[in-house]
Amino acid sequence: MSSFVTHLEAAIDGTRLPHDRLQTVHEGRPLWVRYDLDLVGAAVTRAEVERREPTLWRYRELLPVERDENVVSLGEGMTPLVRCERLGRELGLENLWIKDESRLPTGSFKARGLVMAVSRARELGVERVAIPTAGNAGGALAAYAARAGMEAFVLMPEDTPVVNRYEAALFGARVFLVDGLISDCGAMIAAGTEEMGWFDCSTLKEPYRIEGKKTMGLELAEQLGWRLPGSILYPTGGGTGLIGMWKAFAELETLGWLEDTARPRMYACQSDGCAPIVNAFEAGTKHAEPVADAHTIASGLRVPKAVGDFMILDAVRESGGAARSAPEAELVPWMRRASAAEGISLCPETGACLAVLADLVAEGAIDRKEEIVVFNTGAAQKYVEAMEVELPRLSTTSPPDWRRWTLAN
Ligand SMILES: *Cc1c(COP(=O)(O)O)cnc(C)c1O
Asked: What separation in Å is there between the alpha carbon of 20 and the centre of ligand 1?
């Protein structure tokens, strides 16, 4: 099939751009992908979607790839929406759910965005891709580039989690460690474009990663019987996922696929070690000021300056939600506490959401009966630095004396 895309639209001023060639940004700001939703609605029904394979490609008509043979898939399965009663009780909530994105290829939801970016790049003839990454995006790009037979260049700060460094190299990418932040890596890639001839897959600097991440919102709606929860807590770095979900909800509403069009409050959660979106939300500004010395163990949140800042802020404000930060020191304790309570492999980014959620409950900003969905955007296994605890040693010769154990965590 061909796609139902009509054009690309500059988010900053509405300028229309054609989608049949490579596009990056307009006035330095991101592009929306626009579809003919009347045609989509005539081509497919909810019931047909429900009968398809449980991968993100079941929403094919709402995705931008033109020809099926250009889809570069590793089997991007629908992720489970897991009810968390024990954790909910700890937080004083009756209806808490985690959407567990750690099950995707390369162990994070970055797969959703990059499968789309790489598929479209291949469709438009790209052979070499590059990405600046604070962590998981590099691994996901490297995996999909390998799958597509493309060359990949990955630039990451020196303090990127060790698994992210290794996985990108494992998938055959050329990996470089940069003495600087992700924004410095991004500047180096931009500067190298002409000489190296690579296509820049930076967050929101090409139009299709949003479309991939949009599928989180489509899946969530379908999993809830075509309606939406009361609140969504989302760990926000570049914001692609939050922006994408908000777009998904609008498209579903236009299609008439939602049983109830009430939208969730969107909570953009950050660490107080890097909270540009929270600062802008509180200051009431359209754009966010870059953060000077960004630091957080949640590498996905270590984004000092987001090109889509205004898109995140618009969605959060429209939704009646908020941008909130959690104390950096609380991320890993929440990650551990929630992982232990539920058996879900949680990343420290999600720890930020849980710390924010606890505050919201304490303030009475969230109703205890409300349906709340927290996104677990990556697997704990990717953050050995955050997981490391000293485990008691087992003797191999005599049975351990359990009473004498001191617990490390
Ligand atoms: C990249 C990343 C984020 C932030 O995602 P955005 O959609 O760019 O805001 C959050 N969590 C993890 C684990 C990530 O890898």
From this structure: 28
Could you report the per-residue pLDDT of 39-66, keeping only the tens digit for each?
999 999 999 999 999 999 999 999 999 9
The pocket around ligand 1, CB under 6 angstroms, is made up of 108, 110, 135-136, 203, 235-241, 300, 347, 349, 377-378
> pTM value?
0.95
In sequence order, the 6+-apart residues with CB closer than 8 A to the CB of 146 are 152, 171, 172, 173
What is the phi/psi pair of residue 112, to 5°? -60, -45
What is the tens place of the pLDDT at every residue in 189-242? Answer: 999 999 999 999 999 999 999 999 999 999 999 999 999 999 999 999 999 999
Would you kindly state where each structural domain of the chain is located, as residue ranges?
81-107+210-385
Token pair for residue 249?
């909800």
Helix 331-342, helix 348-363: angle, nearest 10: 90
CATH number of 81-107+210-385: 3.40.50.1100
Ligand 1 midpoint to CA 354 (Å):
15
